[in-house]
Task: inverse folding
């Protein structure tokens, strides 16, 4: 299941690089990617609808898609889950899909929420400030980024920090809504065992990843991060185009701030692809880690719900 989460996170990364078109109908990948701006718009449209399969087909050339599929299948064979893994997953998924799951999870969360209120809430402004500082420093020290990219990344970190500063993470009403979305997503996955994932086709797995991604968007929205609104705000503009390379400026609104970034595009055959998105999505299909690392631990999920704000700041600093 962490493979599904990994894909969802990769989709979130791709969302930061692409823009949303006005049409809601699925597009033919060949037609949608005939120009650099259209390729970005089509990818964002697929992300907005949660169609991860379409997103991957838009982001990867056909040979890379086949390679990703082969790597995924290789990973499944190389790292089958143990009996203990299967039992732990079955117990966890049963907890999130059982009748009355929301109430049971809220009761389990309450002591941790209370501890957060008394021990960590007052420290969050300091933690957020430190996280922003670490992230900004990492950005400035990254030799692979241009001066413009550093400015763009710093602005995005500032927007994220401002959002986190206003998030009421332990607000019981918001937590219940987030738990409700998590429960609804677990039920929508319609999975009860890891054996199902082992026998699932690559395309069906991407369908499940789409369900997980939509659920993740809904949880973020509970806390004020409306990814679909950000996608709707995005506009694309071809900055330069020469031969089989192009640069596309993507302007968007994130947490109320107007931001922009540039996407390096490359032409393969008759289609255009984002270099960054293609690399990240392809990386997500590398052979899975050892089976013991793939199991969902429901206690870890609950802890991440409580500590999500702190973890987000820390991860932003570490990732840059």
Result:
């Amino acid at each position: 299941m962490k493979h599904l989460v990994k894909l969802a996170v990769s989709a979130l990364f791709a969302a930061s690089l692409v823009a949303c078109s006005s049409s809601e109908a699925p597009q033919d990948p060949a037609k949608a990617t005939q120009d650099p701006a259209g390729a970005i718009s089509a990818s964002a449209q697929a992300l907005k609808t949660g169609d991860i399969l379409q997103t991957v087909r838009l982001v990867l050339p056909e040979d890379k898609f086949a390679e990703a599929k082969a790597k995924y299948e290789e990973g499944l064979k190389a790292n089958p889950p143990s009996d203990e893994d299967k039992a732990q997953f079955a117990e966890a998924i049963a907890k999130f899909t059982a009748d009355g799951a929301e109430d049971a999870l809220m009761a389990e969360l309450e002591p941790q929420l209370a501890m957060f209120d008394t021990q960590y809430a007052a420290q969050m402004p300091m933690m957020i400030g430190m996280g922003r500082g670490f992230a900004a420093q990492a950005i400035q020290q990254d030799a692979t980024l241009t001066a413009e990219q550093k400015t763009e990344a710093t602005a995005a970190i500032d927007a994220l920090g401002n959002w986190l500063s206003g998030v009421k993470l332990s607000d019981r009403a918001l937590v219940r809504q987030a738990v409700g979305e998590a429960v609804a997503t677990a039920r929508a996955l319609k999975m009860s065992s890891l054996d199902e994932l082992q026998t699932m086709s690559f395309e069906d797995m991407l369908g499940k990843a789409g369900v997980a991604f939509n659920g993740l968007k809904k949880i973020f929205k509970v806390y004020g991060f409306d990814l679909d609104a950000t996608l709707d705000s995005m506009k694309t503009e071809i900055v330069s185009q020469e031969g089989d390379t192009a640069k596309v400026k993507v302007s968007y609104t994130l947490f109320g701030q107007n931001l922009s970034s540039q996407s390096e595009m490359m032409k393969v055959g008759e289609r255009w692809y984002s270099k960054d998105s293609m690399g990240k999505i392809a990386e997500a299909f590398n052979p899975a880690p050892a089976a013991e690392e793939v199991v969902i631990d429901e206690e870890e999920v609950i802890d991440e719900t409580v500590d999500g704000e702190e973890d987000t700041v820390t991860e932003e600093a570490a990732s840059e």
